[in-house]
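Input set for joint prediction.
Command: fold jointly, output tokens.
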Amino acid sequence: MQPRPYSIIEIKKKAVEIRLSILDAIASAGKGHIGGAYSCNDILVVLYYAGFLKVDPNKPLWEERDRFLLSKGHAGVGLYAILADLGFFSVSELNTLNQGSMFGEHPHHLVPGIEVVSGSLGHGLPIATGMATADKIDHKNKQTVVMMGDGECYEGSVWEAANFASHHELHNLWAIVDRNRLIVSGGTEDINKLEPFTDKWTSFGWEVFNVDAHNIEDLVALFSNLKKRKSGPPVAIIANSVKGKGVSFMENQASWHHGGIDGKKYEIARQELMKKLSEYGEF
Amino acid sequence: MAEIDWSAKDMRDVFFDRVYDLACEDERIVFLSADHGAFSLEKFKKDFPDRYINTTIAEQNTIGLAAGLALSGKIVYVYGIASFVSLRVLEQISIDLAAMNLPVNIVSVGAGFTYSTDGPTHQGIQDLPAVMTVPNLSVYNSSDPFSTRAFAEIAVTEPGAKYIRIEKGSLNTLFKDMSHNYAEGVARVRDGADLVIVSSGAILHEAIKAAELLQNETGLKVGVLDLYRPKPLPIKRLISLLIDAERIVTLEEGLMSGGLGQNIGSCLLENKIFRPFLRIGIDDCFCFESGERDWMRAQYGLNAEQISKKLIIWLSKD
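tokens >
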């Protein structure tokens, strides 16, 4: 059975709860990609809880499902946390991350709800393009959504797929780029410029939307409008985000791309998130 | 009905005519071409325009696209030049196709020195060693019209990802008809056990000629095996065909490093079959010469006369 769509306030609360789950899973694992999981967290929560993705936790391979591909596989822990919460598998399994289980830092298709193997960057958009092409051939009204990192867009394969998707007018394809402006070594614009990023996607023939990746209302409004499209070019959503969003000392810090968290830092992070959660109250 | 002259046909037409027939019966079949053509593809394009896509000169996207199609229930053929649909996209083959065991068939043209006048970028001498490192991937190498036709069908009937080499141009028949069971992976195409040459693909025809020359020269009975499915190596069948061999030689039109000879040699040793063993192929090098295929083969000691002479010298050291 498909989950019921959440209200805005419920989504906001869920986004914090998922951040807490990610924190606990990474603390339990000893290490993980927390910065990139937090930067795309709000978008993933909106997609899964506001009814924009047609999925059924009891039937992960349901033929009529929409497909979501986490091409930036290093944010896998964030997707695991959502899938566990939705019931694709149990929360206790989530906490086996990196500890002798199927749950590694980069996800694969053997985990219920995960569509493809990811981790090496630049694979998701070509595969999503194939899925959208198949749905177009079969006249199926399904959505394919791929989430990429901005650093991933250095990969040439992304642009091979971008060119193909626009030529073939894959209106049923949304590519979301988590534009947190940081790669492992520092800022994208200092190291190897991605700007003018919007122009690049536009010049490849995509309809491009810029959005605040942490504004739940804006995200819901954007996806609601996009769902009405029945033709036209593929859609690129440049989601301007903050790496490590939600925990003050992690925000905009490339050093929180990957690592462990324990002791005092874990407690501070948890307190900050619990405080945020309390702002939404009980409902 | 006039009998078909199989050895007069271009192997691409043999393969693609069969793919066309299969596509008539099975709507799941989708054909992707990396901007590579063949006469027989025209009717596929014309009759199934939704299921034929020229993915152009973008091989990484082509393999990912094939994966996405296969994840949506399609059976996919991907057609391109050997080096570009193997080495250039090895990671995509591994992660996007083989890891998820998807029904995608990479149809590779340009084995060995097929495109020998196009320089080292177009030679198909490293593709087999590369793709043979990929788990879950089956590798087929056609050596005659019947195996070529059979592999077009195996692409649909056998599950999982496959790398299928077919020839540009014609090949003489080695098998009498389509009756051979291609699930065996290897077949004896010439009798003889004093020395057995194991080869694969178009170069196998040089092995047969070399065997005749060697037999005439030495009186030894020289057999030839067609290892048309190098991966997974058909170990039991291969051993059963080699158990009586006095000497074993491998012949490949490609790099020996990571190639057929290494795999066969390891298989023999692990199964305690200890025989005088020789690999013939291309050493660890790039081939910068440019000339027609026969000329290129001669530069690397790969024509029948050279192979026969090399074996006579090798035998003299027994």
